[in-house]
Task: structure prediction
Amino acid sequence: NHGCPLIQKPSDKATVMLEPKTASLDVLSTEYAALWPGGEAWCQELEVYHNPMASHPIDFELVPGATHWFEKDGVIQCEAYFECSVMSSVTRVQLGVPPQEGIADTNDAQ
Result:
């Protein structure tokens, strides 16, 4: 049994958070699985920046589930399928370590 902690730095577009919050979870835990009840989507952390001057703009439905940034009425808008997104993540595979050992919700994993 391997420990597989995932250290994530989620962003919160609603509050325009400048500093990330660090969270550590075991990817094999029920707590981690509960974050995405239907499972993690392949496009979950993709961000699409739409060029307002594009001759052939990309349809939003081409990449469903991605976060889309676009200009509307002169203002940059963000449309996200998921409430929070991850700025960065690291998964450490720790051979011979019990799954929950050494996992903490601290900023020491930066």
